[in-house]
Amino acid sequence: MGVTRNPTNITQGSKTKGGLGESTLRPDGTLKVTGEFAYSSDMWHEDMLWGFTLRSPHAHAKILSIDTGEALATSGVYAVMTHDDLPAFTKYGLEYKDTPVLADGVVRYHGEPIAIIAADHPETARRAAAKIKVEFELLPLVIDEETALADGAPILHPNRDDHHADHVTHPNIVHRQPIIRGDANEAAKRADIVISGEYEVGMQDQAFLGPESGLAVPAEDGGVDLYIATQWLHSDLGQLSPVLGLPEDKIRMTLSGVGGAFGGREDLSMQAHACLLALRTGKPVKIVYNRFESFFGHVHRHPAKLWYEHGVTSEGKITHMKCRIVLDGGAYASASPAVVGNASSLAVGPYVIDDVEIEAVALYTNNPPCGAMRGFGAVQACFAYEAQMDKLAAALGMDAVEFRQLNAMSQGTIMPTGQKVDSPAPVAELLRRVKALPMPPEQQWLAGDAEGRSIDIRDLPGALSNTTHGEGVVRGVGYAVGIKNVGFSEGFDDYSTARVRLEVINGEPVAMVHTAMAEVGQGGVTVHAQIARTELGVTQVTIHPADTQVGSAGSTSASRQTYVTGGAVKNSCEAVREKVLELGRAKFGTYHPAWATAELLLEGGKVVTDGGEVLADLVDVIEGETIDLELEWRHRPTQAFDLVTGQGDGHVQYSFCAHRAVVEVDTELGLVKVIELAAAQDVGKALNPLSVVGQIQGGTTQGLGLAVMEEIIVDKNAKVRNPSFTDYLIPTILDTPTIPVDVLELADEHAPYGLRGIGEAPTLSSTPAVVAAIRAATGLALKRVPVRPEHLTGT
Amino acid sequence: MRVTFNVNGRPQEADDVWEGESLLYVLRERMGLPGSKNACEQGECGSCTVRLDGVPVCACLVAAAQVQDRDVVTVEGLADYAKDRAAGRCGTGACGTPLGEAQKWAAKPADGQTGESTEAGDLSPIQEAFIDAGAVQCGFCTPGLLVAADELLERNPSPSDQDIREALSGNLCRCTGYEKILDAVRLAAARGASVTAGEGV
User: Is B139's pLDDT higher than 50?
Assistant: First the structure.
């Protein structure tokens, strides 16, 4: 096999002609169903070596010595590297450069990389790693707020020089964001009922299926080519360049197939390690984590403790809200500062509350580092404020949906940050829609047999475990709604870049779209092709592989890519169209006055007037020319939040989803079966309706996982106890119910095509809806997710 | 050691196989057939599902030596496998998918911009249904699900939803929420039924 397996190029031909608004099929679909699509773990190169990472067995320890001699002497081992072998800058990080490439004399979490090995077979590398002798001296642990802020607590990052170091109240606090608006204490005096609650969210894992992996190939110019699965090529590049001691143009990154991300690929994992080993050995190096290592190889969703207080008048209007949100950021900062910004600025939920006192903090601890995961700080808050809404409604004797609708925000509402919501916010309508959906029939396990003698146990909690035939099974229904921001916030320069080329190939006009957008499964490539077809009137669109030869697209996160890189593709297509029309005017302008006077469009391979009159064939206009433009595009700027008051127009756009959960609980055994999880979401404009529904269903299911299954168990020694799919359970097709989706399209006039970012909102409200349904079935308070059987049976 | 077995209907051999290697490793790293995926390597996710003498198994849990002289079908051979089955051909003989053809990725220009994807006519009904129903997002679970779903429809051409859920319960998907996967299997079953009834697709 003398070929290098490289990332797959995608051409979408004449089979799919669709533009915007059509459910065109994925351009990579055929490759993905035939096994041809090249994921990062599929990369292959002749003579390549395999990399492996030695990780810390302790959560906090001083490294007294590392002896790599025996490992290096192992036959088949080409290199062993520790912190002492690093060629240049030794740290990286998304926001603070606080994460060592390899442990620098101390390890701060269980699983921290200490050494990397390159060998001719993965098993050789693994065995060599086991021969590295590391002497540790255990250090006291920081595991929660109490131990982080105690007198004499170990300071995990002394000498901080990050931009939040000066204003935090303790060096073990990564970032703290208060938001104060109105006067909560004064407003509380108007309350007839005050409800407070304490809530907890466990540590969820992204559990993307494609493991962290990639191939680094050393180049003749002293640089390196990296084939990688990531969410943001240029962010990786900016962190790799100082670590490798190479200018950015000597690190050529190409996106390989990405097997899901959900936030877990925002931080570097094996990127630097593979490049370092490749540069050290002069050979291509492939690293592929197995699932065990993957649980240590990426950040997780912040576990959180949340305290909330709401007051209401007897008429049901919320008077005020106070809350405090403590997020466990783990050993390194990762995206914690931004998560704090989201948790605090969205802590109020999609409700009108004028008087608020909010505080969110993220801690440094010796627990696993936490950072980005779908929903990003808003998930934790939503679980808590929606539990409060149900409690308030119950205290008032009101219907839970009507109570929410009475207090729901709408277009024009002022957020606690002072930002006016200036596009549709149909919160009450989404609740109405989800409530109006037909209910699933009762006792479906009896369906088809009126006598009830034939029972399909697969429709019952416990299913094929045959734990009940309906006795002890109680149904419950719950509702929830949430608010998520779209795009990078707080004044970040959140731009994207798109290169669009238009030329004639074999007598046909062909558009090529080249961006650095990480396609992680969301379907951005489908949408880019649709945009190009709509704007340029061509059938054939080629999607160039994403790489660093084109400008940054920003991250595939924060529900932002269709908005921002979609906006960039639209913008570049419009500029290309202008060039086409210039060419057309020069060539054919004298033949028809409309060239000078009419609004001209490109449709069906022709230049047409807005009245539909054909002026020229696109092929005739551009024959012999190649129009090739690369342009940056920006959405409206945002502002930082004031560090004392939290005031500022911090967000680009808001996104809303509501859920209704129907569950059946075996109250004797504490087994939950979610029967149906219906969603209603405003998407602004569904550019690809099939993909929109797929995103909503997928996000909903991850919320279901957090509600009843998913938690990384970290013990009191800060060690991860369940790093496998045997012990960390994500929903299977048996756990996942029917998910009807009602899509609302209310255009946001500020966004391209009126669209609204959709990926994350469904992950917010799904969790509290399921838990509300379990509360309804059991009468239990359930302050913590995930809810486990023992929480329902008191055992 | 050397391991000799049938892959997608054609005899193949792998040399220098270390005793601890799994069938999955040999397929992916020694035979150039990375279609079977490596999401967990713990037998929990089903992304590496292949047919071993017709039975769906996790290739990560099968030692390479266990497949000596046996028949393995991977996602790369699924289309031909389905075609041969529909035509009532083979089991043995010259049917199946030659290795070079299964390694379609290798025929692609390394950095070209013109790599044409497989023509849709080359797909099995379940593969077409996955595309049409929107059952593919990141696609990492897809190969294993296709092999499992194809096997389900082979023994049960008109499965109930509960039958589908039961058959696919060993295959994790993190992107789709499974609804579109159910749609895909229903679609393939419906198209199969209309073909059987002579109605055309």
Answer: yes
Residue A436's CB is within 10 A of a number of other CB atoms, namely 11
Q: Which residues of B touch A739 (CB under 8 A)?
A: 177, 179
Nearest CA in chain B to A291: B40
Which of B99, B140, B181 should one mutate to test binding to chain A, selecting the residue with the greatest count of A CBs within 10 A? B140
| Inter-chain touch B177–A208, beta carbons under 8 Å | no
Provide the percentage of residues in chain A whose pLDDT is more than 70.
97
- Asked: is A42-139+211-258+265-297 a CATH 2.60.120.920 domain? The reply is no
- Tokens representing residue A321 in the block: 């809200």
Q: In what order do the strands lie in the sheet with A473-486?
A: A473-486, A653-666, A671-682, A741-744
Task: List pLDDT tens digits, range A256-309.
Answer: 999 999 999 999 999 999 999 999 999 999 999 999 999 999 999 999 999 999
d(CA A422, nearest CA chain B) in Å: 31
pLDDT reading at A63 higher than 90 = yes
Max intra-chain CA distance, chain B: 52
Q: In what order do the strands lie in the sheet with A508-514?
A: A10-12, A540-543, A508-514, A496-505, A627-633
Would you tell me how many other CB atoms lie within 10 Å of the CB of residue A375? 33
Q: Which of B38, B79, B175 sits opposite A288 (nearest CB)?
A: B38
- Residues from chain A that touch B105, judged by Cβ atoms under 8 A, are 5, 8, 36, 38, 42
Which pTM does this prediction carry? 0.96
Residue keyed to tokens 């009532």: B88
Answer whether A38 touches B (CB < 8 Å).
yes
Please check the confidence at residue B119 and state whether its pLDDT lies above 90.
Answer: no
B24 belongs to a structural domain: no
Is there a common fold for A380-484+653-793 and A496-633? yes
Interface of A with B in 518-577 (CB under 8 A): 520-523, 542, 544
* Contact check, Cβ <8 Å, B34/A35: yes
Q: Tell me which residue of B116, B96, B94 sits closest to B105, measured CA to CA.
A: B116
Q: Which residue of B has its CA nearest to A23?
A: B134
At A705-739, the pLDDT tens digits run: 999 999 999 999 999 999 999 999 999 999 999 99
Provide the percentage of residues in chain A whose pLDDT is more than 90.
Answer: 94
| Rounded mean pLDDT, A666-673 | 97
How many other CB atoms sit within 10 Å of the CB of residue A581? 18
Q: Supply the range of the domain harboring residue B157.
A: 120-196
Predicted-complex ipTM score: 0.96
CB atoms within 10 A of CB B88: 7
What are the CA-CA distances from residue A757 to residues A652, A683, A762 (Å)?
Answer: 10, 7, 11
Query: Chain A: residue nearest B115 by CA?
Result: A9
Rounded CA Rg of chain B: 17
Q: Which chain B residue is nearest to residue A124, measuring alpha carbons? A: B18
Strands (DSSP E) found in A191-263: 193-201, 213-218, 224-228, 251-255
* A61 in Cβ contact with A154 (< 8 Å): no
Statement: residue A321 has pLDDT above 90: yes
At the topology level, CATH places domain A380-484+653-793 in Aldehyde Oxidoreductase; domain 4 (3.30.365)
DSSP A215: E
pLDDT digits (tens, 9 = 90+) for A462-480: 998 999 999 999 999 999 9
Q: Sketch the domain layout of chain A as residue ranges.
A: 42-139+211-258+265-297, 380-484+653-793, 496-633
Tell which A residues from 382 to 441 touch B, by Cβ distance under 8 Å. Answer: none
Q: What whole-number distance in Å separates Cα of residue A406 and Cα of residue A420?
A: 19
Domain of residue B175, CATH code:
1.10.150.120
Tell me if A458 and B165 make a contact (CB, 8 A cut-off). Answer: yes
* Backbone angle region of A686, left / alpha / beta, with phi > 0 → left and psi within -120 to 50 → alpha: beta
